[in-house]
Amino acid sequence: MADTGSARAQILGGIRKALNSAEGSEEARKRLATHPRNLIPARARIPHDRQVELFAAMATEVSATVELLGGMADVPGAVADYLAGLNLPAEVRVAPDAALDSIPWDRRPTLTVTKGRARDTDGASLNGAFAGVAETGSLMLLSGAERPTTLNFLPDTHIVVLRRGQIVGTMEDAWDRLRAAGGDGALPRTVNFITGPSRTGDIEMRIELGAHGPRRLHILLVED
């Protein structure tokens, strides 16, 4: 029988040698510094107005809903009407994000708004996206004290505020924007890309929404 301890030591020794080689270290540093891109589909290399249209179309294609708003002042009414249209309680758990402080929730006094991380009893949540990816209709959401990740996955209904100017062509563009905002050394602990509501096709090859997270994703696309 082979000495597993010796084999393991040989494997780890080979890895250490490769990592410590000047050529390997230089190649790794170069790759980390330049952020090489993958193949970029032509459909994403279009003017921004068309990227916004593409984002809305792609998000709708994956069973999200998109509502266009003129400004942040329209958010309370849109949230209240959306929940009422689905016969859901007029309650929403909101991220304690300074970027959402301009929303005048008092315009809809019948809507109960609380802030903080999602709880088991919360049926609907609202937070802001960092970016929207036109290529896939995906949302880029960041974790942090002001942006609890539980809001993305725990409630059955997920509402996301996305400004028109936050839409980019590709995921690579979204990463570029994140690096520019905080620098390579200041990235958040978690970055989630969300494309439509939660779904699975594991049971008899039938698509079921809400299997592992929200069954509804409603995007409020706000003019800048």
TrEMBL record:
<dbReference type="InterPro" id="IPR024185">
    <property type="entry name" value="FTHF_cligase-like_sf"/>
</dbReference>
<dbReference type="InterPro" id="IPR037171">
    <property type="entry name" value="NagB/RpiA_transferase-like"/>
</dbReference>
<dbReference type="InterPro" id="IPR003741">
    <property type="entry name" value="LUD_dom"/>
</dbReference>
<dbReference type="Pfam" id="PF02589">
    <property type="entry name" value="LUD_dom"/>
</dbReference>
<feature type="domain" description="LUD">
    <location>
        <begin position="126"/>
        <end position="222"/>
    </location>
</feature>
<protein>
    <submittedName>
        <fullName>Lactate utilization protein C</fullName>
    </submittedName>
</protein>
